[in-house]
TrEMBL record:
<keyword id="KW-0732">Signal</keyword>
<feature type="signal peptide">
    <location>
        <begin position="1"/>
        <end position="23"/>
    </location>
</feature>
<protein>
    <recommendedName>
        <fullName>Lipoprotein</fullName>
    </recommendedName>
</protein>
Length: 145
């Protein structure tokens, strides 16, 4: 009976692992895109890194699809920013009551009580950004933890 919860988690683990994308899996899915890159950029893409001057397809291979794209204008020049999210924990707590019927602390019957309930929610926040001008990387930012 103790094995049942673990068996139920196996399909979830398989599903989550299939959703993750790595530079190697993106290269395998897009070999023609990878083969057109300069040798210097191929080495960086394989490591999941970027550099100034890289084109957007190379950044996609290295970092994956961005969670959002922003366009704008700075100092009279247009730019595009790709944002990648990270999950940030938000800790909350509450105090409340509960009520139930069944097998309680004192045996069969109704039971109730109050308690302190800590909770953790994970909220997506911007973790890193890549800035492009005319399709080439001009800079990037990474959130420090």
């Amino acid at each position: 009976m103790k094995l049942l919860p673990f068996i139920c988690l196996i399909p979830l683990a398989i599903l989550l692992s299939s959703c993750s994308s790595t530079p190697q899996s993106r290269i395998q899915k897009n070999p023609e895109l990878y083969n057109r890159l300069p040798e210097k950029h191929k080495a960086l893409v394989q490591q999941g890194k970027i550099d100034r001057g890289m084109k957007q397809p190379a950044v996609y291979l290295a970092m994956g699809n961005p969670d959002s794209k922003v366009t704008g204008n700075r100092e009279g020049r247009s730019y595009e920013r790709w944002d990648y999210s990270v999950l940030t924990p938000v800790y909350t707590s509450g105090f409340g009551g509960y009520y139930g019927y069944g097998r309680g602390y004192y045996g069969r019957g109704p039971y109730y009580g109050t308690g302190y309930y800590p909770e953790v929610y994970y909220v997506p926040t911007r973790g890193s950004s890549v800035y492009f001008r005319k399709g080439s990387v001009v800079g990037w930012e990474n959130k420090q933890r």
